Structures are given as C-alpha cells and as structure tokens.
Amino acid sequence: MTLLVFGHKNPDTDSICSSISLTYLKNQLGNTAKAYALGEVRKEAQYVLDYFKVDAPTVLSSISNICKDDANLVLEGKPQVVLVDHNEYGQSIDGLEDAELVEVVDHHKLGGMQTSTPLSMRLMPVGCTCTIITQMFKENNIEIPYEIAGLLMSAILSDTLLFKSPTTTDMDKKAVEELNKIVKVDVEKYAMDMFKAGSSLDGFTVEEIVNMDFKPFDMEGKKVGIGQVFTLDIDAVLNKQDEFLNYINNTDFDMLVLAITDIIKEGSYLIYKAEDKIISDAFGVNASQGVFVEGAVSRKKQLVPNLTEAVKKNI
Q1: Helix, strand, coil percent values for the chain (each to nearest 5)
Q2: Name one GO cellular component term (predicted).
C-alpha cells in the first residue's frame, strides 16, 4: 500500500520539503511512499527545489479525486495518509475523513483531530517540521543525501527566519549545522537569497496575497483567518491597503488578520477585519490599519495565541 505524504493547504517551504524528505526516509525504511502537495509550489519553495534539482510533488485536490490527480497511483481500499506540518482538518486535504490517517509529524499545537484507529504521532515544540525529520533520519541511521539535506536545511531556515523567529530552538540550530556539513553553503547568504526569491509580490492579486499563506482557526466559536506574507517590499502591500481592506472585509470570516512580516525589521504590519480593541489587547499597540507590531514574526507562537487570548477576553 502506498503511503500518501503531504503538508497543509497553501503549502509553504516546510510543507513541501518535509513531504519530500519524509517520503525519502519512508522508502529507505522499506515502505512505499509518495510525496504530494495540497496546492501549487510558492516562489520560495520553488527556489529551493530548483537549487537542489528536485521535482515538485504532484498536487492533490481532494481524497475523492486522488486517482484523477495522479493517474499513476493505484490504491486498494482507503488511502493511507501521513500528514506533515499540520494536524487540523481545516488545513488538510478535502475529504480527509474518508482516508486512513496513519501518521502525523508536526511542530504545531494539537488541532482537535480524531481517528478511529491508533496512529503514530510525532509532535515537537521546535521551529520546523524538517528539524523533527532530521532527527528521525538520525534515529534510524539513514544517511541523508545532498539534495534531501538541502531541502531539510532550507525549510528550517525558512520557518525560523534564519533563527530570528521566537520558535527557534537549539535543536533547529544544531540540525542546520549538521545538515550544512553535507550541503556546504554560506548559510546566511543562501537564506537571504531564498528569502529574496520568495518575497517578491509582483504579479499577485490582492486575493492571492491574502491567501498565499492562510490558515483558518476556531477561536471561542468565531471563524478566524490569519494570513501571513513575508516580504522585503512592504510598500507593495501598504500602498494598496484600501484594496486589501475591501477584500478582507468582504470575506465570511468573523475576524481576519493579514500580517505583512518585514524580515529585516523583524516585525509585522497588520491589516485586519476585527475590533480595534482585540488587536490592541492582543499586541499591546494602539490599533489602526497598518499598525506595526515589533517582534511579531511567528503566526504559531505569537499571532495565534495572542489573538486567541484577546478574543477570550472580549467575548
């Protein structure tokens, strides 16, 4: 039986690289596994794949369309799936309930998923899923080839913002140090080249930018969406603030926050559909559209928990 390995919708660099890397590990351990993506590869991840000469995964649209999306895949019974970089139904493939979930490897909070059978679950409070997968290679004494080492290292640098994110741990730093013994690049230069390749917003519509890295959440019964875009060209978004607000305000979310994260200044500008008081309480700022929140670079560790507490307080 083929294991289908994939990350979350609107896949970022970690989702793409962890899918490919864990698939390689599974196959080396005697399983039959194949990596997939739940959306088109973004510019940053494509830069990584091109740099290390790795093909992008096939895109899946839903469980019911798996064999249409991948005509070479032959299934017997329910598809067996392995999730990386997420563990929430809302962030995963449509129809996941109709598949057999056999494993999760992730670095996020528990998302309330339920299964009818036991599964393998590896959740660790580190900066990147690929840090966990690097550890799994070590535990299984499987040698990491150059291109897989490159993908693993790239994802860690991406998710930790070159170790500037508060999610960064010593385990992430150690993993990059060990992986770069195989890859042998100037880590800082490579990371900045990767960020530059991925942060250009030229050619994207307002809707595409908001949904580029977007995740839905349930906060005290409220439907909340949080989008985040990392860019070196902040003005490309802020100069179109009214257009972004018009789109955001016309979504069906009770609350929606778009964080435009400045990699150099290490903080985020916020455009939002929410009460000013919630934004003020969440981030300790005088809330206004486009407000800059110093140090806020992590959705997982800052945006989500801060907004969750603010919603609870103001419910």
Answers
A1: 40, 20, 35
A2: cytoplasm
As given in the structure block, the two tokens for residue 229 are 């875009």
Q: Which residues contact 91 (CB under 8 A, 6 or more apart)?
A: 8, 9, 111, 215, 216
Report in angstroms the alpha-carbon separations of 160 from 42, 111, 119, 303.
17, 21, 28, 15
pLDDT at 205 over 90: yes
Average pLDDT over residues 30-55: 96
Mean pLDDT of 88-99: 93
Q: Which value, to the nearest 10 degrees, does the dihedral of the CA atoms of residues 90, 91, 94, 99 take?
A: -100
Cα pseudo-dihedral 140, 142, 146, 150, rounded to 10: -10
Residue 78: which residues within 8 A CB-CB, separation 6 or more? 98, 99, 100
Q: What average pLDDT does range 209-222 have in this prediction? A: 92
Sign of the CA dihedral running 81, 86, 88, 91: negative
Closest CA to 79 of 20, 134, 68, 42: 68
- Where do the domains of the chain lie, and which CATH numbers do they carry? 3-199 (3.90.1640.10), 206-313 (3.10.310.20)
Please say whether the beta carbons of 15 and 94 come within 8 A. Answer: no
End-to-end CA distance of the chain: 48
Whole-number Å distance between alpha carbons of 73 and 67: 6
Q: What is the pTM of this model?
A: 0.81
Distance CA 183, CA 156 (A): 14
